[in-house]
From TrEMBL:
GO molecular function: alpha-N-acetylneuraminate alpha-2,8-sialyltransferase activity
Cellular compartments annotated: Golgi apparatus membrane
Bilayer topology: Single-pass type II membrane protein
Protein's name according to its UniProt entry: Alpha-2,8-sialyltransferase 8B
InterPro entries referenced in this protein's UniProt entry, alphabetically: Glyco_trans_29 (IPR001675), Glycosyltr_29_Sialyltrsf (IPR050943), GT29-like_sf (IPR038578), Sialyl_trans (IPR012163)
Keyword Transmembrane helix tagged: yes
Family: Belongs to the glycosyltransferase 29 family.
Cysteines engaged in disulfide bonds, as pairs: 156-306
Organism: Megalops atlanticus (Tarpon)
Length: 374
């Protein structure tokens, strides 16, 4: 093939690529204008080459404490807002398309049986010098196929664990979604009016076994753990078993109990590339996180199989917009320093990023009380 012809074909391909990129940008900007939005969020890397910037509002709790006269952060339930939230399908689809350049949640949500075998050595993601072995029990719980294979849901709820949920009356609204994601095996029954009961997928960091169930050190704590698992009724239990050294015994204890008691859950163990892929997506889009929180991780994954995503219980501040104290978790007395340099997470930055996406209609962030249903 002559060099000149190859050059011509290459030039045509480049022009077509530029055309489709500009069409994507134009379509999103048009829909953003229809939403009345003025804030811009970095999406694919080609947007970051322009002079656009991420515009985020200051810490809403500081506005409430210092100024007092500014309006509270947008509520997506019963509190009045000046602009009604409208789903921006074009922007949501564009985010999904660009996340797929970094990871595919259907594939990366779990290691599958056959990709590993009992005895295989795994290097921990955050401690590459340390290793663990795939136990026979853990191997038995690896899924044959992705637990999210071919799944698509119209409306999904991701429920964080902030105390902002207390007295919110959001339980029925959360349960009305087609798919409900919860974090770190948080209790629901005694808080159902505020957080709901339905669970489609729930995460369980190994540290939860120690913190919430006292390392299963007695029959009482083992039974409490089993009772929580039984309440999942066939849901996906997502266990990040290979993140950091120190949790291998707790994972094995949990896995053994699931097998011994034939607990009806679909276990999933995230791929070894997942966390770095998620972090890479956000860093590429100028969101300078250290390590994604479980909430941001779940939102990133949910874009793959959820059309419209609603977030509840995301509030990384010690006080609400009226200056009232807010518990770190709605269900315990654990405290947390949100802005500590020692923390592996950058929660306030994540929240402001999600709030910017809310303002553009890509997701809906619920931070107020919900309307009681008749």
């Amino acid at each position: 093939m002559p060099f000149e012809f190859r050059s011509l074909m290459f030039g045509i391909v480049i022009l077509l690529a530029v055309f489709f990129i500009l069409a994507d940008i134009s379509e999103v900007e048009e829909e953003n204008r229809n939403h009345g939005g003025t804030r811009t969020f970095y999406l694919p890397s080609y947007l970051s080459k322009s002079n656009r910037t991420v515009v985020v509002e200051p810490d809403p709790t500081q506005r409430a404490i210092v100024g007092g006269s500014n309006p509270p952060p947008p509520s997506c339930s019963t509190e009045a807002t000046s602009v009604e939230w409208t789903f921006n399908r074009t922007l949501s689809n564009l985010i999904r398309k660009n996340i797929l350049k970094f990871l595919d949640a259907e594939r990366d949500i779990s290691i599958l049986k056959g990709t590993l075998k009992p005895g295989d050595v795994i290097h921990y993601i955050f401690d590459r010098q340390s290793t663990t072995n795939i136990s026979d029990n853990l191997y038995r719980l690896l899924p044959q196929v992705s637990p999210m294979k071919n799944q698509h849901h119209k409306r999904c709820a991701i429920v964080g664990n902030s105390g902002i949920l207390l007295n919110s009356s959001c339980g029925r609204e959360i349960d009305s979604h087609d798919f409900v994601i919860r974090c770190n095996l948080a209790p629901v029954e005694e808080f159902a009016a505020d957080v709901g009961r339905r669970t489609s997928l729930v995460t369980m960091n190994p540290s939860v076994v120690q913190r919430a169930f006292q390392d299963l050190s007695s029959e009482l704590w083992r039974e409490r753990f089993l009772q929580r698992l039984r309440g999942l009724s066939g849901s996906v239990l997502w266990i990040p078993a290979f993140m950091a050294k120190g949790g291998e015994e707790r994972v094995e204890w949990a896995v053994r109990l699931i097998l011994q008691h034939t607990i009806n859950v679909r276990t999933a163990f995230p791929s070894l590339r997942l966390l770095h892929a998620v972090r890479g997506y956000w860093l590429t889009n100028k969101v300078l996180i250290k390590r994604p929180t479980t909430g941001l991780l779940m939102y990133t994954l949910a874009t793959r199989f959820c059309e419209e995503i609603h977030l509840y219980g995301f509030w990384p501040f010690a006080r609400d917009s009226q200056g009232n104290l807010v518990k770190y978790h709605y269900y315990d007395t654990l405290t947390y320093e949100y802005t500590s340099r020692a923390s592996p997470h950058t929660m306030p930055l994540e929240f402001r990023t999600l709030r910017s996406l809310h303002s553009q209609g890509a997701l809906r962030l619920h931070v107020g009380a919900c309307t009681p249903r008749e």
